[in-house]
Predict the structure.
Amino acid sequence: MEGMDVENRRNVSWFSAMLLHPRYTRRRPDGAYSRPVRKSRLRDARQATGDSPLIYLQKLRVAAAKRMLENNHRSMQEISEAVGYQDLAFFRALFQRHTGVSPSAYRDRFGSQ
């Protein structure tokens, strides 16, 4: 967030918190998300981050997964679910796309022993 003005930093902080909060990422039984997001907030976030909201969300989740892989011994399924992905195969593929290595390889390389 270095080099951003105060308004952009505020938008990114709000957007980051909103995207990682379970209230916003869980679906209701009718298939809709729990909380709608105003389109202006999405545009502000895209302008501030340079990424689409989906890509930014993926980057936030991968960063959270990296911290978990480095610092604890939870299973891949637990980490996948903790960062918002129920499908472990999807999580692995997404993690590799963003980092260039699989979650297991990342843990082997950077995890605490």
User: Anything to note?
Assistant: The mean pLDDT is 77. The radius of gyration is 15 Å. The domain at 57-113 is CATH 1.10.10.60 (Arc Repressor Mutant, subunit A).
